[in-house]
Protein: histidine kinase
Organism: Chryseobacterium shandongense
Amino acid sequence: MLKIFRPYERALFTFKKSNNMNSPEQIEAERLLSVLFYSPNATAVYRGEDITILSANQAMLNFWGKDRSVIGKGFRAVLPELDDQPFFGILKNVWDSGETFTAKNYPAVLLTEDGPKKFYFDFEYKAMLDEYGKTEYILHTASEVTERQEAMHLVEEKSKSEQKLINDLSALNEEYYATNEDLMLKHEELFTANAELLKIRKELLTANHTLAENEKRFKTLVEKSPVAMASLRGETFEVDIVNDMVLQIWNKDRSIIGKPLLEAMPELKDQTFIDILSKVYETGQPYYGKEIKALISNGEEMKEHYLNFAYQPIVDENNNSVSILVVASDVTEQVHARESVIEFKNRLEIAMDASRLGSTEVHLATGKMESTAQFKYNFGYAANEEFNYSDLYDAILPEYREHIRGLVQKAVLTNGVYKAEYPVRWKDGSIHWLEAHGRPRYDKNGVADRMVGMTTEITDKKLEEQRKDDFLSVASHELKTPLTAVKASIQLLNRIKDKPYSQTHIRLIEQSDKGIEKMCMLIDDLLNMSRLGQDQLMLEYKTFNLHEMLSKSCNHVRLEDKHDLILTGNESIEVYADEHRIEQVVVNLVNNAVKYAKESREIHILTESLDDHVKISVQDFGEGISESVIPHLFDRYYRADHLGSSYSGLGLGLYICSEIIRKHSGKIGVHSKIGEGSTFWFTIPAKTGRIIADAALN
Ligand code: ADP
């Protein structure tokens, strides 16, 4: 146990200076030592390298647990228990260096009655220096601070445990916070759930209320609906709720309410509706009908209607049908409209086919065309061949292309129709005239994106026009020739009018007469043609003897005496026909023989009576007609080429003849051989054919 130094305890100490013990310094040191001796602090004085203990007061001896016998001995020798502690080393260092060493709360294990024990000290090894700065002795002062140290330890321990406590607490606190947050969250969830529950409860309450109102509302809904609606209840489809619209379609009034459907509308008996309703009722599956034909009685007769409708089953909580909601619309008008559009389209197609009208749609940006077969055909393309806008322009004869392009562009700009006639060259080289119409089509932004076009071939019409044009120039020329001759004759006559009547007068008068005669004939032809064109050639039927008529006609030929008219055949043939017109035909054929077979002296007129018709032939022995032109001889304006010779004529004679014979229900034709001459013939029904002729008249 530690022995605490008490100040009142006297302790003796000896301080011995090695060299001069009685010097003033010695006194000084002794005095100092005595002071120290009484100091409550433990004090010791050392000297030398082996740290000889010069002096130690009781307090120090108490610390050491030694008695005064240690004085004058080496530190290590008397305190071997401190060997493994740093004190000797420190003292040695202080001695050698002259530097004081101070320590606080320094631990030292000292021997006590109870064995070695740890104490704490504040101590100082103060180096006391001589005038040369060398260590003369070391003053060791120490005070035990074990209690303080322990107290501090205690405080430290306490503060440590406090800190731990704080740490623990803060951890706890954190945990608490986390838990709290969780709780808050849970609370919030609970709160939301609660609100939800409240809402559901409210909804349920409302639903309950709604349920009660539902039927009422449903009824109002059906009744006020702008579309035809009805509700049919139960397996017999009892008419439960109806609105005016559905009554209108059904052509019924409200008296049907409460009746089973078949009773309310007996006309539905053999129609599909009841079956469909039954199926919907059984399966619970809705049914949608599109444009279904319904025959609905209007009280007097059954009227055809087309209906779009939905049958929606209404089920109870066990999913069993209780009624069927019917929603319907009468689409009769639309169906009819569509049918008539289809009909119209069909008719249009027929008309287009009949008129050989081809149609196309050109996509202006790409030049792609969607064309009908006829359209392609008009340009000489097969239906399966690709045909685009560029091909179209390529087919058009070059001199027409730019003009057509201009017309199309103008139509696009003005939203107008373009109309044009142009010739196209087919791939086989043949030229065909087309009439084309087109109209632009615009997209929703008003930009022309397509062109719809139609074409039809007008080659025949064009040729006809061409022939007409040629004919007009021929006709004027033909008329002008005799007119010029007549004019000249009259001018000459005028000049010699005062002169005595002479041969010149006669010649000029005859010339004028001939010219006028020729003009009359030409004008007759023109008039006849014009009448034929307007179908105004009237026949005046009568019975006459053919032979008689023929022998009287063509006197002008006989008078000219350039040809012999030889009449052969049955002299008694009587025909029922327009005598004047038949004579006109014969005269025309004889005149042609005179004109085109000058060298043929004989001209034979042959009459034959065949089964039910009479045949009259006019035969010449002239140059004959080439086989290739024969099919065209009876065409209007047709005039064959006669190499080297030019004949006046309008190309109307044979055409008029054929029309007259056609009107008599007869036939006309020609046999001819180059170099041998030609036989023009016609037939008309024999007298027995009167009935036929009468029929033709009517
Ligand atoms: P045109 O007024 O030109 O004579 P037609 O219709 O009477 O017209 O005759 C048509 C063509 O038939 C004539 O242009 C002529 O070439 C040919 N033709 C008519 N009759 C004869 C004939 N007897 N012999 C040879 N060619 C004829």
Notes: The CA atoms of residues 360 and 371 lie 4 Å apart. Residues 356-457 form a domain with the Beta-Lactamase fold (CATH 3.30.450.20). Residues 592-593, 596-597, 620, 622, 625, 633, 638-640, 642, 649-655, 678 surround adenosine-5'-diphosphate (CB under 6 Å).
